[in-house]
Specification:
13 helices, two-stranded antiparallel ribbon
Length: 315
């Protein structure tokens, strides 16, 4: 137990360090942009006097290090700045966009987990038989499909049958409408992950099924199904959980692209708006929040890996 607490403590200590590293990277990369933040807030029609007054009032004439610590101070208070001539709040914009990105990511993750788990287990149990051959071909094809390319194919195939644009209704207000609107984006996001996770689960299951304890248990008269359900599946989950952490991060990044294709007003559309209109503060805020979730999810998966594999706790 002490080793487990120590290992989890290490991950939690690393969390703020990585977040600070991300803020440094995001801030200094955007600070080197030739785009003037004052113009991005006031608009291109602002006068030189207005721009200079804004820069002085917001510390943009201060040394870059001072600007960073000012930015961090505002960030700690939840102030991500404003953007555009209307001085819209970056935090409010992210507050509207982030739930949609998380909903899409979660939907893609659920689809990927269900299909990859079933296909991976079936493929391993029927190793080298026709179900295994079909699933292996499918997994290779799915793994080779870029999400954005698949999204375009799905739009062409299901246009008229499923909505590919328009508003996304709230799930609890209109579950059917939410599922219909989210179906194609979630499938586009999930299919490449299904391809990889199916192969990982199959390989892990095959390695576990070949171990001596499985043959001993089956030889002792325990049904194979029982051995698989109670022992093999738990032991075989270790490698897939590790890969899953990376794939969840892939889902978040992929969701940003898929949202643009399906016109979902999530983080992808927000960052596209920021890039098109040169809203530096909006770009900073969106990138920072996406990176934050990327780090947190990987830390959580890392801790799940520790809980699943008892051998790690002794390190």
């Amino acid at each position: 137990m002490n080793n487990l607490i120590r290992l989890i403590g290490r991950r939690l200590i690393a969390l703020p360090i990585m977040i600070i590293g991300v803020t440094i990277l995001v801030f200094f990369v955007t600070a080197m942009s030739p785009i003037d933040q004052a113009y991005s807030v006031l608009g291109e029609t602002a006068t030189v006097e207005q721009v200079e007054a804004y820069r002085e009032a917001n510390g943009l004439n201060d040394p870059i290090i001072v600007q960073y610590f000012t930015y961090m101070g505002n960030l700690i208070q939840g102030d991500l700045g404003v953007y555009g001539a209307t001085k819209a709040s970056v935090a409010e914009k992210i507050g509207q966009a982030l739930p949609i990105t998380l909903e899409l990511t979660f939907a893609g993750l659920v689809i990927a987990l269900i299909f990859s788990f079933v296909l991976g287990v079936v493929s391993a149990v029927y190793r080298d038989k026709w179900p295994d051959q079909i699933i292996r071909v499918f997994s290779i094809a799915a793994l080779s499909m870029p999400s954005f390319w698949l999204a375009v194919l799905l739009i062409l195939a299901f246009m008229g049958s499923l909505p590919v644009a328009g508003n996304l209704p709230a799930f609890f207000e209109n579950p059917g409408g939410w599922c219909a609107r989210m179906a194609l984006p979630a499938i586009s996001l999930a299919v490449p992950v299904i391809g990889q996770m199916t192969r990982v689960i199959r390989t892990s299951m095959v390695e576990e099924l070949d171990k001596g304890y499985v043959r001993t248990a089956i030889g002792a008269g325990i049904p194979k199904r029982t051995v698989i359900a109670k022992n093999v599946l738990r032991n075989a989950l270790i490698s897939p959980v590790t890969v899953l952490g990376l794939r969840i991060a892939h889902l978040i990044g992929g969701a940003v692209v898929i949202e643009v294709i399906f016109n979902l007003p999530g983080m992808g559309m927000a960052i596209l708006q920021g890039i098109q209109a040169n809203y530096i503060t909006l770009i900073q805020g969106v990138v920072l929040v996406v990176a934050f979730f990327f780090i947190v999810i990987n830390i959580i998966v890392d801790m799940l890996y520790i809980l699943i594999d008892p051998r790690i706790r002794t390190v």
